[in-house]
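Title: Comparing notes on inverse folding

I've been comparing how different people in this forum approach sequence design from structure. To keep things fair, I'm posting one structure and asking everyone to reply with a full sequence. Here's the target:
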């Protein structure tokens, strides 16, 4: 409101410079943004006013908003930096809530808040900053003990950074834990309670911005923050040191801009002569301190240690008001580099290499608005002294004159900073006498030092060298020099490949692809359009916990699938024209060593158009690959640009497909390494959680056989991805192999009956095809096989492909060798899978999966459940459904064992059992009963939300019956016991009789899988004494609810009772009725009725 303001009528605009000429007198308790009528304001002026806002002018109040984190649904105005920040309850010291900082990318990970600057514009005031915190290990939750006095190590201790910006000048103040206090190691909260003084550098009428930033500690630490207060002290509260020894105020010069820009060193604290690092900050996690070893043997210098890479060092915010386009600046400093461990000077620095990172250099950064007005963008300039006379054993003079370009400078610059960086990992960077000066025209040299204004093209021989040479690629120097860890950790291990001294090791990597280590010493000036590069290295992959070799790698599968990403490969990252691009470069010809030995990777790769363009500035090949929790070791890395005569005429594709006519291509064995004679399971991979390997001798007493072991289910085995280009509808294929089974513990052969159509105890092939982005499985069994439990057996089946699993839109094709009881070892040898020509097709092909006859092949009037009481203490024949299972003791009657399904994220997770489908006679009747209980996994308390009569709730145990008639006709039916008497603190009896319908019964059913679900997410489901038996039809029946796939993961809504079999028209319920947290209610909405339908094929 205009009457709330006294306006200086000499000015008619509001912006960052003129804000001091407007005096805002806000009425008491008015905390809203005001609009001044009649004042001409541009959009930028309005934005400036909105950022500042108007606040209660009582500066004795807390300047931090939401500092006690009372509102758990609103994070404003806090911002997260390099971390995930969210609320937890309760807070510290008995408060309602606090903020926890997790998944912190580095020690800069924390939270920040921009404060309203009104009260901070007055000089000579004292402010008190207080906040409470605890720090603990992110994994073990143990308190942090590595922060020690004087508590100023940012890698282990918390810090509050207060940043102010006035007229382009940036000032920063660090507040640490008081070194006179004792660091608490018992997990109790601690308090940072420090004073902040407004002076010439951080206050004034032209103060633009002030913000606070709470961060610090390593990436392994989590910080809990609470009760943040920042308020101005009254005179009676002033500490003695301030009232008796107030800092001297120095007025800013009032000279003209030209004289002001050219008459000073823009660097604050340029030589550390105060014995402190004031105004400077460390960069990317290194330690920065002032040490009494200055240039010339006197005074202090800055020392940056614990540097993981070239881009760690020191930085300072820089005044940007004089950064005029075309102006020239002089950058000078004294620098030296030496190894942190040995103290030896760094000899790999060559100042003549443009865009080099092994010598000291300056990164100059400015922030300007984007051209499209969508925000701000940072611009960098790599300033390098190409003429420096480098001395590895002493101080060196860095001296460069550089001209401000339009990209970097100009009136729109909002902030700027200088970074002093460079040198290999683990090198110490010492700096002294830093000077950055604006040069007047008469001071500008006639011949400007080269700097990096016009970099010359890199020499030809330089570009064609191995950029991983000089002990970088073979690690014989015993370090990871030249690499940067991209996610996870890295170090060297011994021995390396082929018995060498060292290899590189990448571990503790995130469970995502593309994380590894990249080589940053490649000169990007060598990269040209369509240039071809050679990448090669040796690698080995193993599980970080068990040390077992990784066997899920399949180098020959489609690019981007899990199995090829589980192999070693290179992810190439480039940047040009402010565009970041990457390409995963796989080696399709790799012979992967599945025994844990070294594998050779080698690819010649031609840069595509999308990865190269104007303003090319980055070429980073990342060595990566392997599944979650895997360790990657690599050695003998070679990266070089190929000469014209070395480059292929046509760049090889990453996943080449065989050429030639289909007829010629299809008449071959599609299996690679069919007999394991490589001595390794190359091209093969495990299917399931088992492992694969080799066993000798193979079939015939010679060579090798392929082995799948540590199998916990019949559905685990061994497979490989083969070409699907010949997988045509109506085509005939032959599947042949030599097969053997034995028990892994006793080593005894295993008997099985190949003629059984319901058992999984014999080996068979489960053909997996992905079509239209859906997985299709077909079981191929040899019912004519003669089985010898103690020897090799011949599997031989001819199978005709159907439209459902062949033809167009097939993504991949995998024959999976499975079958055999749990703990059995499956051996295969001499595998042949081929598409037959018409003349090869037998007149009468063996059937792959014959439908059972109308009369059941076994006695169906007995209990069909094997291991129903779990008294043997194992889970044989049972399977988890999206969660793990185990046995627990005692069982329901206080003795024996029960089955336990845990880590269930949803109600529809549980435990299942594969049944014999030959007994599912048309419209047959079944009696299903079992003992069951539910309990909270965290507390062990019984589940009280189960109300068996509530047919809309998922909180009670239920039976989910899956049946199928072929892979494209799968039925889901749910059955509840609404008469069950529920005991939340003990065992309850689930007992139902059901009659099947034509859709889930009959002689053509090939899958019969009841599984047991129900209960809230996070609950444990316990079963015992399970019985499933076919009975004559009783007078009363429990009916089921048929569910389609779309409802598989949603709430089970609507009535569950099916209609009589003579008429299967059914309602799926009243859609007005909804369930939330166990409460049933009517949503009272219109137009939500579903149409009743009559099932197809039923009259």
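Reply #1:
Here's my take.
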């Amino acid at each position: 409101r205009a009457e709330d303001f006294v306006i200086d009528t000499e000015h008619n605009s509001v912006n960052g410079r003129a804000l001091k000429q407007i005096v805002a007198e806000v009425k008491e308790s008015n905390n809203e943004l005001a609009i001044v009528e009649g004042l001409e304001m541009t959009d930028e002026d309005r934005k400036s006013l909105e950022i500042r806002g108007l606040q209660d002018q009582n500066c004795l109040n807390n300047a931090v908003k939401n500092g006690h984190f009372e509102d758990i649904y609103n994070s404003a105005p806090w911002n997260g930096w390099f971390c995930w920040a969210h609320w937890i309850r309760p807070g510290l010291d008995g408060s309602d809530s606090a903020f926890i900082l997790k998944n912190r990318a580095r020690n800069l990970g924390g939270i920040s808040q921009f404060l309203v600057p009104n009260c901070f514009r007055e000089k000579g005031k004292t402010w008190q900053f207080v906040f409470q915190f605890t720090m603990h290990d992110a994994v073990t939750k143990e308190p942090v003990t590595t922060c020690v006095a004087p508590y100023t190590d940012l890698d282990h201790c918390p810090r509050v950074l207060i940043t102010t910006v006035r007229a382009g000048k940036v000032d920063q103040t660090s507040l640490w834990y008081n070194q006179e206090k004792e660091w608490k190691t018992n997990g109790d909260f601690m308090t940072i309670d420090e004073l902040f003084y407004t002076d010439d550098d951080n206050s004034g009428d032209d103060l633009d911005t002030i913000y606070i930033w709470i961060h610090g500690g390593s990436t392994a630490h989590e910080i809990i923050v609470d009760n943040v207060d920042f308020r101005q002290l009254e005179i009676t509260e002033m500490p003695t040191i301030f009232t008796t020894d107030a800092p001297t105020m120095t007025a800013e010069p009032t000279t003209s801009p030209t004289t002001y820009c050219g008459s000073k060193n823009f660097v604050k604290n340029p030589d550390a002569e105060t014995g402190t690092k004031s105004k400077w900050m460390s960069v990317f996690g290194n330690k920065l301190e002032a040490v009494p070893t200055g240039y010339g043997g006197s005074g202090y210098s800055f020392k940056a240690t614990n540097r993981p890479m070239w881009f760690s060092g020191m930085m300072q915010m820089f005044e940007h008001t004089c950064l005029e386009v075309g102006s020239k600046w002089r950058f000078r400093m004294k620098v030296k580099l030496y190894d942190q461990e040995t103290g030896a000077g760094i000899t790999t620095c060559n100042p003549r290499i443009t865009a080099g990172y092994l010598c000291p250099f300056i990164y100059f950064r400015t922030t300007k608005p984007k051209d499209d007005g969508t925000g701000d963008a940072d611009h960098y300039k790599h300033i390098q002294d190409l003429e420096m006379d480098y001395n590895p054993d002493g101080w060196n003079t860095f001296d460069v004159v550089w001209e401000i370009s339009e990209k970097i400078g100009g009136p729109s610059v909002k902030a700027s900073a200088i970074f002093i960086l460079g040198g290999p990992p683990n090198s110490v960077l010492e700096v002294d006498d830093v000077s950055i000066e604006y040069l007047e025209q008469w001071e500008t040299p006639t011949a400007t030092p080269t700097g990096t204004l016009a970099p010359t093209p890199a020499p030809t021989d330089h570009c064609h060298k191995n950029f991983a040479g000089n002990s970088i690629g073979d690690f014989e120097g015993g370090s990871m020099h030249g690499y940067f860890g991209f996610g996870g950790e890295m170090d060297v291990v011994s021995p390396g490949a082929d018995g060498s001294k060292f290899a590189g090791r990448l571990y503790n990597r995130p469970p995502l692809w593309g994380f590894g280590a990249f080589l940053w010493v490649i000169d990007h000036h060598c990269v040209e359009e369509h240039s071809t590069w050679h990448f090669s290295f040796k690698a080995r992959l193993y599980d970080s916990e068990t040390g077992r070799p990784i066997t899920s790698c399949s180098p020959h599968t489609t690019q981007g699938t899990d199995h090829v990403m589980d192999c070693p490969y290179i992810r190439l990252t480039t940047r040009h024209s402010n565009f970041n691009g990457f390409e995963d470069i796989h080696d399709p010809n790799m012979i992967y060593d599945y025994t844990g030995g070294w594998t050779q990777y080698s690819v010649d790769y031609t840069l595509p158009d999308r990865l190269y363009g104007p303003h090319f500035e980055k070429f980073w090949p990342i060595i990566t690959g392997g599944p979650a929790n895997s360790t990657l070791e690599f050695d003998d890395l070679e990266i070089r640009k190929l000469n014209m005569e070395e480059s292929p005429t046509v760049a090889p594709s990453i996943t080449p497909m065989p050429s030639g006519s289909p007829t010629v291509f299809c008449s071959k064995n599609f299996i690679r390494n069919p007999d394991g004679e490589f001595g390794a399971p190359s091209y093969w991979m495990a299917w399931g959680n088992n492992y694969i390997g080799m066993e000798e001798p193979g079939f015939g007493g010679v060579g090798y056989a392929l082995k799948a072991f540590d199998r916990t289910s019949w559905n685990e085995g061994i497979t490989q991805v083969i070409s699907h280009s010949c997988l045509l509808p109506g085509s005939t294929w032959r599947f042949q192999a030599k097969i053997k089974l034995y028990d892994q513990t006793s080593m005894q052969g295993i008997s099985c009956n190949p003629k059984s159509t319901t058992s999984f105890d014999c080996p068979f092939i489960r053909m997996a095809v992905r079509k239209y982005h859906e997985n299709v499985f077909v079981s191929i069994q040899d019912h004519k096989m003669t089985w010898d439990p103690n020897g090799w057996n011949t599997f031989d089946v001819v199978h005709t492909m159907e439209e459902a699993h062949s033809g167009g839109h097939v993504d991949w094709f995998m024959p999976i060798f499975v079958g055999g009881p749990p703990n059995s070892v499956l051996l295969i040898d001499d595998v042949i899978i081929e598409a037959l020509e018409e003349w090869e097709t037998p007149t009468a092909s063996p059937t792959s999966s014959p439908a059972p006859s109308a009369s059941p092949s076994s006695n169906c009037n007995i209990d069909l459940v094997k291991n129903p009481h779990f008294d043997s203490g194992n889970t044989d024949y049972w399977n988890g459904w999206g969660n793990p299972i185990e046995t627990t003791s005692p069982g329901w009657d206080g003795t024996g064992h029960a089955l336990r399904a845990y880590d269930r994220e949803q109600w529809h997770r549980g435990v299942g059992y594969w049944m014999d489908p030959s007994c599912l006679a048309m419209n047959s009747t079944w009696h299903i009963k079992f003992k069951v209980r539910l309990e909270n996994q965290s507390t062990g308390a019984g589940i009280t939300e189960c109300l068996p009569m509530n047919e809309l709730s998922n909180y009670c145990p239920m039976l989910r019956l899956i049946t199928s008639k072929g892979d494209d006709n799968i039925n889901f039916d749910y059955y509840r016991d609404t008469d069950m008497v529920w005991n939340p603190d003990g065992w309850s009896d689930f007992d139902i009789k059901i009659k099947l319908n034509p859709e889930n019964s009959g002689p053509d059913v090939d899958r019969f899988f009841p599984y047991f679900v129900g209960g809230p997410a996070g609950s444990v489901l316990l079963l015992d004494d399970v019985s499933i038996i076919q009975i004559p039809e009783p007078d009363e029946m429990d009916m089921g609810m048929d569910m389609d796939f779309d409802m598989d993961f949603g709430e089970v809504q609507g009535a569950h009772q099916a209609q009589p079999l003579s008429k299967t028209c059914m309602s799926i319920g009243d859609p007005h009725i909804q369930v939330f947290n166990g409460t049933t209610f009517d949503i009272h909405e219109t137009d939500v009725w579903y149409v009743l339908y009559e099932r197809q094929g039923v009259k």
